[in-house]
Every structure is written in structure tokens, then in C-alpha cells.
Amino acid sequence: MTAIAIPLMAEVHLLDVAGPAQVFGDAARLGADFSLHFVADGEAPLASAQGLPLAPATEWPELKPEDIILVPGGRAATLATAARLGEDSLGRLQNHYAVGGRVASVCSGAFSLGLAGLLDGRHCTTHHQLQNELALRFPQARVVSDVLFTEDEGILTSAGIASGIDLALHIVAQQEGPAMAARVARGMVMYTRRNGNAPQLSGILRHRAHLIDVVHLAQDLLDERFRERLQLAEIATAVGVSARTLSRAFGQAIGLTPLRYQQLLRLEEAQSLIQHGSTMQAAALAVGFDDGRMLRRLRARDAHDPRDTGVRSH
């Protein structure tokens, strides 16, 4: 039985805790050998960042080298103000790693790993808004940008809040096999498991840093229906403008045409399917291309000049 100890602190983010906890809990209900333990240094209950009071145990379980301590993140405009573990829990992190145990973090939980001295010389990541600060605060750490999670000699770190789910599924796949991880993912209504090198900021998020409402409305439609054959006029009518106005607004807002944005979404989804075993042809058909030729051309083009998409080629 692998114990997953999750130390909590005041202002902890609920999803940082609940996402991985559901992964390991669901895996256990399906027969996997995981047990969950929620602990804290001080008196319970403590308040989460969202206001829900939590009542973790104040006594830690006896941990074996094969067990995992997973540190969630907390409210964090900056790392300097981030919720973090107390001295007792930091000492437990150090001791557990020293005897061969694994430690993991979600989002700003990487700050606690850094304070415990566990990031020096290790690849790691955190929320995209905190990565530069993490690198400055711990200059010996090898902070990796725009990935979902990293693993380096027993140190596992994940990026923004929901990526803790991806990291937990990765651990389940390692210990119980990909089939078990896939069953858990399906039960959580996740379309596919993503690997650690998947971009933290997908096209759906990367191109939303603007204030043009009509473009956001068009993106909403494309995000939902990117597999379909959508004509520019159809999209424009749906958002209440002319095709010419929509094209001009798209270019001003994100530097892409609506068609190129749709291709980006298709390409990212196809990349994920291929990474999980689909053939080029099957992935192309699944995302709306007629066959694999267009997908091959897009992958080749973005491998040569990825500047307008941010898509990684594999």
C-alpha cells in the first residue's frame, strides 16, 4: 500500500488538494494500492483559500520510502506571500526524501519544496505566473516553463492548479499501469491523460489575453466545435458581425485568422492523441481533418516556424 500524505496549510487551494485526492481515491476504489492521509502542523480546522474549513489530522502516518508526500499550493499573488508549510512539515519533507521517498507539489507548493532544499539541481515547475519568481528565489533549481509537470530523481512538481490531476494520473500510471490511469481519467470525464511535456498554456488559454468581446465569443464557439467544418460567415453570423469585421478583429486581438486558430486547436488535440498511441491518420480524423495529409503539413510547418501557434512538435 502506497500512502499519499497531503500536508495542508491555511489558505490552501481546494482544487490543489481535491484533484489529486480524487485521482488516488478513485484508483483505490478500483483496486489500486493507495491510501490518503491529510495532515497539518497546527490545530485544526484551518481555512482554505476558498473559505471552506478543513480538518486534517495533526499526527502524521508512519511513512515508508515507497510512500509520497504531495504538497498542494495556496493563495499566491507572489511566492513571497504564498501559503507554505511550517517548519515541522518542511523537516518531514527533507527526512522523507533523504530515506528514498518521493515528494511532489502542485502549483505554488513548489515553494515549500524549495524551502526544504529539495529543488537545488532539480528540474521543476510551478504556475506560469510564478515561474520567474521561483527561479530567482531558488537559483540552483532548474525551472522549466510551459509544461504540466516534471519528474527528477524523486522530485515531482506540477504547474497551475488543475495540473495536479495530470501529475496524480502520471503517478497512478507508473505504479498501477496506464490502463488503471485511463480508467480513473474516464471516470473523471477527462478526455485524455496528458503527459508532462504538454504545454501548460494551451491554445485555448494562450490566445485569451485580450479585451475584444466579439473575438472571445467566436473563440468560445471554435473551442467547443473545432472538429467541425465551420465557415467564416457562419461564425460571424453567430457572434453578430460581418465576416470582414470578425477577421479584422481576430487579427488585432491574437494575430491569427479564425481558420488558423481552429487549426491550432485541432493540431494540439491531435498531438495529444498521437502521444497516447493514436496513429497519424486516426488522430487526424478524430480532430476533423479528412485524412492525415493536412495534419502532417501542419506539424511540419509548425516544427519549422512555430511562432504563431506555440505548438510543440514531437
Automatic annotation (TrEMBL):
Residues 216-312 form the HTH araC/xylS-type domain. Keywords: Transcription, Transcription regulation. One of its GO terms (molecular function) is sequence-specific DNA binding. SMART domains: HTH_ARAC. InterPro entries: Class_I_gatase-like, DJ-1/PfpI, Homeodomain-like_sf, HTH_AraC, INH-QAR. This is Transcriptional regulator GlxA family with amidase domain. It comes from Psychromicrobium silvestre.
